[in-house]
Amino acid sequence: MTWLVTGGAGYIGAHVVRAFQDAARRTGDATLEPVVLDDLSSGHRDFVPDDVAFVRASVVDTDAVRAALVEHGVTGVVHLAGFKYAGVSVQRPLHTYEQNVTGTAHLLEAMADAGVGQIVFSSSAAVYGTPDVDVVTEETPTSPESPYGESKLVGEWLLRDQGVATGLRHTSLRYFNVVGSGAPDLYDSSPHNLFPLVLDALTAGRTPRINGTDYPTPDGTCVRDYVHVADLAVSHVAAARALADGRPLAPVYNLGSGDGLSVAQIMTTVAQVTGIDFTPEVAPRRPGDPARIVASGRAAARDLDWVMRHTPEQMVASAWEAHRRPTP
To answer: Transmembrane ranges (predicted)?
Structure first.
């Protein structure tokens, strides 16, 4: 009896896998042992521990997913596999929908065939679009503004409808701007995320860039939730354990900071932690970037052991350590 982590060779997925391993060792609960399914389109095979079963396959391949579920005695799924680049999704909507909507539908079909009845879904704060409130809650209306955000919302609907049809037990976790590292050998390799962009620039001797300093925020730069990946992973496992124990969960939870940090604050912290003094270059705003997206994490704190355990300095320091680690 195991939990399948789709996308488990990716940055977030690999941290979730290790959080499952830690929980299994700590509690002695063998049902928390993870299995990874990943097509390695953006993941890294060396992110998967040697003692974790690995299946190289895509979630759009129903037969392969079904076989993995049966072979490894899977009782639940944490679904992180997908195409996650909101900006790129505007240029590649069909690919985004195939990976995130069709892939989720095929996964749910395989789960139904194999009798697997519980799933934790990795959703996104992108489902909110540009909210007109300072802090979004689970009751804030959804209004996604990219194919990526739309695909994540449709994924939530698929879980909801499958729950009605088959009794599938599920919850979806919405979050944004996942940063840091829980282990030196796990790093964010995304070409689009703020932390790797800034750290790559510093390593190459370039000056990091801020897109827009004229937003209606205290320092003129965008304000976002920045949450540490290890904290996020703990709550994925907490959600899985709650489903396995039969405890009631809400359909969706925000894993948010409640107050957020600005891009300028992140830049200042990076300079302090790395010891590299720089003044960011100022570039024009990027189209579609809202001034502020910050979510409340109160419901998740109540039900899913959601706690912001890391300071901004610790977020940057852990990311910097992993970024500088030599690759094998």
So the answer is: none
pLDDT digits 0-9 by tens, 6-21: 999 999 999 999 999 9
CA distance linking residue 92 with residue 87, whole number of Å: 9
The model's pTM is: 0.95
State pLDDT tens for residues 170-222.
Answer: 999 999 899 999 999 999 998 888 999 999 999 999 999 999 999 999 999 99
Which listed residue (11, 97, 128, 148) is catalytic?
148
End-to-end CA gap in the chain: 33
Q: What is the CB neighbour count within 10 angstroms for residue 245?
A: 7
Class of domain 2-176+226-254 as given by CATH: alpha beta
Q: CB–CB of 140/188 below 8 Å?
A: no
DSSP state, 198? H
CA trace torsion 239, 241, 245, 248 (10° rounding): -10
The neighbour count for residue 78, using CB atoms within 10 Å, is: 28
Rounded CA separation 161/155 (Å): 10
The model's pLDDT over 102-160, given as tens digits with 9 standing for 90+, comes to 999 999 999 999 999 999 999 999 999 988 898 999 999 999 989 999 999 999 999 99
Contact 230, 180 (CB under 8 A): yes
Distance CA 278, CA 105 (A): 47
Q: CB neighbours (10 Å) of residue 91? A: 10
Q: Measured between alpha carbons, how far is residue 73 from residues 33, 52, 65, 116, 275 in Å?
A: 11, 14, 12, 9, 49
Given a contact cutoff of 8 angstroms between Cβ atoms, the answer to whether 42 and 12 are in contact is no
- CA-closest candidate to residue 53, choices 75, 63, 68: 68
The closest of 205, 121, 112 to 167, measured between CA atoms, is 112
**Tokens in use for 180?**
């840091």
Catalytic residue flag (residue 175) = no
Distance separating alpha carbons of residues 18 and 277, to the nearest angstrom: 34
